[in-house]
Amino acid sequence: MSKKRLSSQVGHTTDSYHRDELPIAQGKAKIIRELQRNPVTILVGETGSGKTTQIPQYILEAGISGGKCIAITQPRRVAATSLAARVAMEQGVSLGTSVGYSIRFDEHCSPNTKIKFITDGMLVRELMSDKYLSNYGVIIIDEAHERTLRTDVLLASLKQILRRRNGSSQGHDQSQDPLKVVVMSATLDAQGFSNFFDSIKPIYVKGRQHDVHIFHTLTSQPDFVEAALRTFFQIHTSNNPGDVLIFLPGQEEIENLNSSIRFYARQLPQGVMPVLVYPMYSSLHPSQQSKVFMRTPHGSRKCILATNIAETSITIPGIKYIIDTGKCKERRYVAREAGSGVDTLLTRDISRSSAMQRAGRAGREGEGFCFRLFPKQAFDSMAPTLEPEIRRCDLTAMILELKSLDLDIERLDFMDKPDEDAVYSGLTTLSILGAIDKHQNLTGAGKKMAALPVDPKFSRAILASEELGCSQEVIDIVSVLSVSSRLFLGVQNDDSNVVGTRDKFKHPSGDHCTILNAFRAYQEVVSSGTYGEATSWCARNFLNARALSEAVEIRRQLRGICKRIGINTDLSCSGQVQPIIHCLVLGLVQNAAFIQPNGFYKQVMGPSVVKIHPGSVVAQTHHPAIVYDELVFTTQTYVRGVSIVTKAEISNVFSSISGRF
DNA sequence: GAGCACTGC
């Protein structure tokens, strides 16, 4: 494979530094001046510039926050906690005093906290109780280029809050102290932020970086897994030291390449370094995941095969070579009438900024190399950034959240306007669920649903569970469903034992009650044993221990909120299944499907013909009617999280809600 | 017979 040599500057961070030596320190005086002068500042800083740790301290030290708290939002929880720890150390204070953090389930703050790292989702939740965010003097939106749904909601709200707290014009609230907003982005495409905030000129800060030499292929590589295999062995047989990180779109490609590399590595001649191959993706067993962080033994080479997880979420030390297939998986919601939309999960080309971010992963500790398995022209014609989340996800939950903040999604000034069909679809779902009335006003039920931090279809089920006397069971099920990661773990080289142990929890009615069985069994182990015992019990039963312990926390949180908003959480249907299923049907009405003569199921409220995902406990069975949690198109249209119901149950619920849409 | 990555009073 021939490659054209190009050079590019990309980011680098070291673990130990003096604050004054960071690249951003050179521009400190200028930055402080700009911050003092302007209500909104846009700051573009490359990786390793030190902006995230230093800007809050500059603001504090220069007294710009007017004695009030400075919030710095982060899209990820780990980032919020580790950055807070770093800044506390630099300030010479203990974490949770003047420097703290706030993430779901874990808050380390005091009334005297002046610098608070907070997940963007938590700050959105804080809006619900304080709609001017009046506790804060400065709000810093970090990693704004990632354009998460919650970042976009915050930016839109902040624009309005700025008018209320600062403006001389209409809507200014005299009782409010002024607010400053800092938008920080790691990529050069700050134009969008600039346009959004009255054409403010961004401040640029260079990063601290090592050179990364970038190579492109001359032609496009349709079989990128095979191209990655060849490129890896070219690097490997050169015998230059340094670990390799290969970016692939998904688990399937990773496992294929894993076995190919292992196969060929065994046939290498004597004298070539041994290779240690590690897959890395989010649903991998935690014990397998942690292997990528182990030090590479002297005289061997580590090769990590990763999804996008290694692009932003985790940093693996020692990487000198990147092989970038230029592909990722993208989840996208395709809205359809009556809220019967489909999620698609398909492989697509990455963006230019993503390609640059991936290359940068080779330059963190020294000079690096990045081999792109696509031509330079392909790079040039890539989209500059991926489409923001607000343009490609189901907006139902967000519309409900905004309604409870008295905000109207159709009137809010967003950086990118949400898709009209997605808004319509979300509004339809909310009216079917009874969260809004004919005039699209929040109902009493809708207020309660908004208070519960779960998908509206699940908060609907929780509300119903009080009437049907099974709030204990339904809250338990919803807690597990609300955990992002999967409950049942697979292992590499799938062996039939996994299915065997899963059968232990299997309930004939489907996945929801199966989940309940597993969760109840786990809770019993936890209450009668130590944390370590629970973890090993999970491992023996191929259950995701992290998912279950998170479900316990979500359960505690949901029960707390239910009590506060007046939902009795102690009702149990003691072993009966029907009430539980009925609650689920009320939340999942739009997700009902009837069987067809050919064995496939057809949506009742939409046109799709669907198949039960093979991971479901009822995958191989046939029943007249089902309800499901998710509809995802990958290679086929699959439904996941399935319970068996009767056609009568579906039509009863239909007639009780007809007229709402 | 198959699962990109995050997040929430």
Give a topology summary.
Elements: E1 3-9, H1 28-37, E2 40-45, H2 51-61, E3 69-74, H3 77-91, E4 99-103, E5 106-108, E6 115-119, H4 120-129, E7 136-141, H5 149-165, E8 180-185, H6 191-196, E9 203-205, E10 211-217, H7 224-237, E11 243-247, H8 251-265, E12 275-280, H9 286-289, E13 301-306, E14 319-324, E15 327-334, E16 342-349, H10 352-360, E17 368-372, H11 376-380, H12 396-404, H13 420-432, H14 444-451, H15 456-467, H16 471-481, H17 496-503, H18 511-528, H19 531-540, H20 545-564, H21 578-587, E18 592-595, E19 601-603, E20 609-612, E21 625-633, E22 637-645, H22 647-657
Parallel strand pairs: 2-8, 2-9, 3-6, 3-7, 4-6, 7-8, 10-17, 11-13, 11-14, 12-13, 14-17, 16-21, 20-22
Antiparallel strand pairs: 1-10, 4-5, 15-16, 18-19, 18-21, 19-20, 21-22
Helix pairs in contact: 2-3, 4-5, 7-8, 12-13, 12-14, 14-15, 15-16, 15-21, 16-18, 16-20
This protein binds one DNA strand of 9 nucleotides through α4, β15, β16 and α20.
